[in-house]
Predict the structure.
Amino acid sequence: MTLRLGSALLVCAVTLSAEAMTDQPTYVLMSGLSDGYYGYSNRTPERSQFIAVSSGVPTLYVPAGSSCSSNTLYFRQSERGDIWVHEGSPNRMGAPFSQNKSSLRTDAVLARPDKVTTENHRACQGAVQRGNG
């Protein structure tokens, strides 16, 4: 009985580990990224994605009930400072994330950095690769 239970637990642990690994994206950095928060909503933060960049490495945050994409995500910072995220291919249409700045008004669409919280979000941390940008 102990052997069967141990085997079942091992199979369960390996399955859960494999599922957790496939639920994480690969991040390809096509340019350098400036540290900060990008796209954190002031009005409905619990329903939107945002990006946190620390030491040039991004982490995509999705609403707590959402799952992380297992696709490759390509990150590129524009001259204006927005971060563009392309899913699956750097040639696909991307989504821009504007930087949250402390100079934003309290009624702005984006929140000030001191208002950013991750309690209603799930971090999608991926393996980071440097691309040719």
About this structure: Strands lie at 26-29, 36-38, 50-54, 57-63, 72-77, 83-87, 95-97, 121-124, 127-130. The longest strand covers residues 57-63. The chain has a mean pLDDT of 82. The first helix runs from residue 2 to 22.
